[in-house]
Amino acid sequence: MSLAEAKIEARKAARVRRRAAHAADVGAGAGRLSELLAGHRGVPLSGYMPIQSEIDPIPAMAEAAAWGPVAIPVIEAEAEPLQFALWEPEMPLVDGPFGARIPQSPVFIRPEILIVPLLAFTREGSRLGYGGGFYDRTLQALRASGPVLAVGFAYAAQVAEALPFDPNDEPLDLLVTEREIISF
Ligand SMILES: Nc1nc2c(c(=O)[nH]1)N(C=O)[C@@H](CNc1ccc(C(=O)N[C@@H](CCC(=O)O)C(=O)O)cc1)CN2
Ligand SMILES: Nc1ncnc2c1ncn2[C@@H]1O[C@H](COP(=O)(O)OP(=O)(O)OP(=O)(O)O)[C@@H](O)[C@H]1O
């Protein structure tokens, strides 16, 4: 199996596990994320507007927004890093590419903490996304230009024993699930 085929298979398996976890979600994840973010108050951070069966970080983002700048990802172009637009609870949003909501009038910032959505993770800190390479490109660019903490946010059930690895894959620094905070 080629690497690309292995990633497709891993994504399929991960979607099944994530969907089941989402159906059973009682909302415990955002509390754990808040716990972690409380140690970094005022640091500019990026969350995300959940799509599909992603775990919901919005309550933790809303709390963090009381202390410092919070942003959400915006795709400016294919094969380019993501940009991050300032976000406030209840602000007007419009549909962006792939169904993720984005601000109507984006004001971009450089986050130092990225809450990263994912399909699957390993206990060694690898991550599998949707295959756009957006977070890989973004983390590579941010890591080259200054401090950044990549915090995966996922259901515990999204763990994989191993994931197909390509040299462009950027590792996570931390991972938060509804059960625990794992540092790599
Ligand atoms: N909530 C959230 N926002 C985000 C991301 C994300 O992963 N989650 N992104 C992180 O990159 C960017 C959006 N990128 C995405 C890339 C592909 C797909 C996706 O669903 N792809 C389809 C296949 C392609 C298609 O529909 O044409 C799929 O997964 O089946 C979703 C988001 C920016 N915003
Ligand atoms: N920094 C980079 N420079 C060039 N190509 C890259 C870079 N990062 C990723 N890519 C390419 O983008 C494609 C998609 O990458 P990959 O399958 O790892 O995406 P993903 O991590 O699942 O998605 P995402 O990061 O958007 O959540 C691959 O062909 C990968 O080699």
From TrEMBL:
Listed Gene3D superfamilies: NagB/RpiA/CoA transferase-like
InterPro entries: FTHF_cligase (IPR002698), FTHF_cligase-like_sf (IPR024185), NagB/RpiA_transferase-like (IPR037171)
Gene Ontology BP term (one): folic acid-containing compound biosynthetic process
Molecular function (Gene Ontology), one example: 5-formyltetrahydrofolate cyclo-ligase activity
Keywords annotated in UniProt: ATP-binding, Magnesium, Metal-binding, Nucleotide-binding
Pfam families tied to this protein: 5-FTHF_cyc-lig
Co-factor(s): Mg(2+)
Enzyme Commission number(s) of this protein: 6.3.3.2
Keyword Magnesium: yes
Reactions that this protein is recorded to catalyse: (6S)-5-formyl-5,6,7,8-tetrahydrofolate + ATP = (6R)-5,10-methenyltetrahydrofolate + ADP + phosphate
EC supergroup of this enzyme: ligase
Family: Belongs to the 5-formyltetrahydrofolate cyclo-ligase family.
Matches recorded under PANTHER family: 5-FORMYLTETRAHYDROFOLATE CYCLO-LIGASE, ATPASE INHIBITOR/5-FORMYLTETRAHYDROFOLATE CYCLO-LIGASE
Protein's UniProt name: 5-formyltetrahydrofolate cyclo-ligase
